[in-house]
Known about the structure:
The chain is of the alpha+beta class and 657 residues long. The protein has five domains: 3-60, Helix Hairpins, CATH 1.10.287.610; 73-305, DNA ligase/mRNA capping enzyme (D-amino Acid Aminotransferase, Chain A, domain 1), CATH 3.30.470.30; 309-418, CATH 2.40.50.140; 424-569, Orthogonal Bundle (DNA polymerase, domain 1), CATH 1.10.150.20; 589-656, BRCT domain (Rossmann fold), CATH 3.40.50. The strands form six sheets. It has a five-stranded mixed sheet. The two termini are 47 Å apart.
Amino acid sequence: MDAKERIEELRRILDEASYKYYVLDAPDMSDYEYDMKLRELEELEAANPELVTRESPTQRVGGKALDTFAEVTHEVPLESLQDVFSFEELDAFNERVSQAVESPEYDVEPKIDGLSVALRYENGVFVQGATRGDGTVGEDVTENLRTIRSLPLRLDNAPEHLVVRGEVYMSKKVFRELNAERERDEKPLFANPRNAAAGSLRQLDPRIAARRRLDVIVFNIQSVSDRSFEKHSETLDYLKSLRFKTVPHFEFSTVRECCGKIRAIGEDRDQFDFDIDGAVIKVNSLAQRAALGSTSKAPRWAVAFKYPPEKKETRVTDIVIQVGRTGVLTPKAVLEPVRLAGTTVTNATLHNQDFISERDIRVGDTVLVQKAGEIIPEILSVNLSKRPDWAVPYEFPKTCPECGAEVERDEGGAAIRCRGAECPAQRLRHIVHFASKSGMDIEGLGTAVAQLLIDSDLIRSPGDIYSLNEKDVASLPGFGKKSAENLINAIESSKSNGLVKLISALGIPQVGQAAAKALARRFGTMEALELASVEELTEITDIGPVTAKSIRDWLDTDQAMHLIGLLRKAGVDMTYLEDTSDRRFEGKIFVLTGALTKYTRDEAGEIIERLGGRTSSSVSKKTDYVLAGENAGSKLTKAQSLGVAVISEEEFEAMIS
């Protein structure tokens, strides 16, 4: 078998495996076997670049970032639907339809809460995808759509021309995992899966969209050549035969029969992997649809039945505090079980102390509860007429319920945060940050390995990292003698990184890499920093009173003193190591813009600072160099207008060689 034949065979095998995994949810190939075949395909395509095609499974990872999205005029408008909010309104819709066409039959589908897109195929190959936009003109998001595994990039036995409409969404499982990851990284959480999907699909960098693991379900043929159908249900069966993931649908002879299914969809909404915001009722006959036509805003042959937010009363039996991975204390109301939107609700988030105080929520109160966006249970109000005499205002704890450390309110914010350096609730976050590139730079000790070490009870805080031994690590799943040896060597090597890295790794509130360097230069040793007063700290440029107090308060905690003691005992170097051998960039200011290929911006910045220069986030007349990568934007334009020297990555490498 020659290379071309093997490439085609591998593509067929991988496409089939993806279809069974992502569309049918019935995988028949292990992840390892899939990865091995994908690697073989990548190697064959690398050796035969002329055989690479856009629809190859290797091309789903995401290409170069875009500057902006191009506009796309839809071949067939992507209309919105008229909403109905009761069965009486649905009867009125049916009355209008029945006056125009005889004995209409209907198709009922769950209304997926996502982002509507048009997908265009030519000769069976996916060539373009666009958002709905205003229904007439949308945005070209083809590169991002190509990263969706359930979207077929090529169709077998397909018509010459095909445009289908679908809904891009983020599954509930992926949404939960994404928000857990964002919480760990101290990033704002997405409000709901729809917002997460919309934000992901409109990323200018397809690689980010690829990491978000979006999905798509198709629900309509917009345009097709060489095919004719009588019913909408037939078109869905046809799309399913082409291996699209299609919307679940149910056919009924009368609108009265539709009502039972609409109720069932609402009651069973928690059973779907995607969020829904209603049910869609469509005339099934395509000829009758054509006769009914559309208004200027919506088709006359379909409506969206919107479920009213279900609200019920229940009682608050307790208020408990959860400590998140970032140390934020979040209050939660424990509720007497109540059935809402298809699930049993037993608790509701109370967000923070301000939320509780504004609504005067107390243990024992009878409260009105609903699901915000049909997802998150929330308390709307308190029924004061049912408040028991013994109910008292709730007060936040003064110490962390997980570790006993003092808590403090964020400056200018509502969050109350634990200051414990060894707080169990923040264990994973502390350890991952300590070992990160901006911290002690321990290669191989990322999130997955840190979690494995924690689960195996080998480490409880960053200070325990240096007590690990090769034998214990080698016994962990996924590790062997060599990989364990590499990790232990990386840990041992990190001991000599010096005070700047150490201060940055400790995760002191308000202290980043720049502040860590300033502190190390000023005090020289950890011992001197431990003795520094607030007044001495504020003498340092860029360290204000708030940051100075934060540093002092953190150093005074028992957990911080214990952690530093463990690190000192382990032999971690706690002195400032200033490299004065090469200061070629002394006094030079660099601005970095665009995507670099050989370095991250942090890595390039570290090189510049090591050679005596410094980086800035904005271009001015004081800027000496702008290091411009791919897709450099306004900073490059400003540099050119000011006459600032612009250097490429190759020129930068020549300067540092």
